[in-house]
Specification:
The chain is α/β, with parallel strands linked by helices. The chain is built from twelve helices and 15 strands. Strand 11 and strand 12 form a beta hairpin. The longest helix is centred in the last third of the chain and has 18 residues. The protein is globular, with a radius of gyration of 20 Å. Bound molecules: pyridoxal-5'-phosphate (PLP). Pyridoxal-5'-phosphate binds next to helix 3. The site of pyridoxal-5'-phosphate has 13 residues, from helix 3.
């Protein structure tokens, strides 16, 4: 098991320094020392997200979906109307959340693999909505959405903008201040390459105004409570202490290495290196606007995508990401997040040549 190489979209290949931190005994967390760790992480994350001054970050002990639900639950109610971009299973998840919470919504439905264009949004009278929910990168298909376009239209119509950047963060450019993002979500198990369990919700000053004074039908997921306690570096409930300590160490490395543009360039270079190796293989790119976080591929020969995943895992210990649902036979994905180097991609492509021949 342990020798497997993960080309997955989370958990991903971890870095040795994160593993080392994970092996240490956990400290008690209601202390000034731990508060300092949390405050330092908040500062580092907001910097990477290019958040506007006065932004805050909530540390939620839950997977990414929990953070998506927390944003919708805290910022909106039955009096709102949301527009949801749905181009795959993560867009669909926002729709399910709106349905579960009884929040009126409409969907911008995109065919899997296709990009979002201005015409897709022009069909809606944006002034009728209070907020827009979008995944920066629809991880199920590998499509990176045009956030500057979405941001411009949301700003014109005065919409609250919620961006699930869970798989885009550190891979594709995100500029919270420039793009007027009010809620930006990411999670520990994607490009941060940590264990799962910690999700981060970055909230702009306008997003914080939105939260103020709202009645929230949840104790655990109350973002205002999280931000209030977070002001002194604490969380209302026991956090994923170990993952936060790994985050502290990871952020220190990321800060040493460079700014967000640097990290996106590194992810882009890995993606480009891998895609260049694919020439001659019976595969085509599935996404019309690929993210740097992963490459989604459709086999054009006789072997189905899910069989390719199984064979690469079982014969070679190389774990690509299978698709679920209707795309399971046609699409598999190769991740570019975490501790993967060019030689890993060389190994993968060599194995793919055998599997696909
Ligand atoms: C991974 C991911 C999520 C979160 O999934 P969880 O399994 O709940 O952590 C949400 N949105 C996107 C775009 C993702 O890539």
């Amino acid at each position: 098991m342990s020798a497997n190489v993960l080309f997955t979209v989370g958990p991903v290949q971890m870095y040795p320094d994160s593993l080392e931190v994970g092996a240490q005994p956990l400290p008690y967390f209601r202390t000034a020392e731990f508060s300092k760790v949390v405050l330092g992480c908040e500062k580092g994350l907001l910097e990477l997200a290019r958040a506007p001054a006065g932004s805050r970050c909530a540390f939620l002990t839950m997977s990414g979906t929990g953070a998506m639900e927390a944003c919708v639950l805290n910022a909106f109610g039955p009096d709102d109307r949301l527009l949801v971009v749905n181009g795959g299973s993560f867009g669909h998840r926002f729709v399910e959340i709106c349905e579960a919470l009884g929040i009126p919504h409409d969907e911008v439905v995109l065919a899997p693999g296709t990009a979002l264009g201005e015409a897709d949004l022009a069909r809606f009278d944006l002034k009728r909505y209070t907020g827009l929910l979008i995944n920066a990168h629809e991880t199920s298909t590998g499509v990176l959405y045009d956030l500057p376009l979405v941001s411009r239209l949301c700003r014109q119509a005065g919409l609250v903008l919620v961006v699930d950047a869970i798989s885009a963060f550190l891979c594709d450019p995100i500029a919270m201040a420039d793009w007027g993002i009010d809620f930006l979500i990411t999670s520990s198990q994607k490009a941060l390459a940590l264990g799962p369990g910690l999700s981060l919700v970055m909230v702009s000053p306008r997003g914080q105004e939105r939260l103020a004074g709202r009645k929230v039908r949840s104790v655990y997921m109350n973002l205002a409570t999280h931000l209030n306690d977070g002001a002194r570096g604490q969380t209302p409930f026991t956090p994923a202490v170990g993952v936060i300590l790994q985050l502290e160490a990871r952020l220190a490395v990321l800060q040493r290495e460079g700014d967000i543009d640097h990290h996106c360039r590194v992810a882009g270079a890995k993606a480009a290196y891998f895609r260049d190796l694919l020439g001659g293989l019976p595969l085509k790119l599935f996404s019309s606007r690929p993210s740097n976080a992963l490459t989604s591929l459709t086999p054009t020969g006789s072997k189905a995508a899910y069989a390719v995943f199984l064979e690469l895992k079982d014969r070679f210990g190389l774990v690509v990401t299978p698709n679920g649902g209707p795309l399971s036979e046609t699409v598999f994905r190769v991740g570019h997040m975490g501790n993967l180097q060019n030689e890993h991609y060389e190994r993968l492509v060599k194995a793919m040549k055998e599997v696909l021949s």
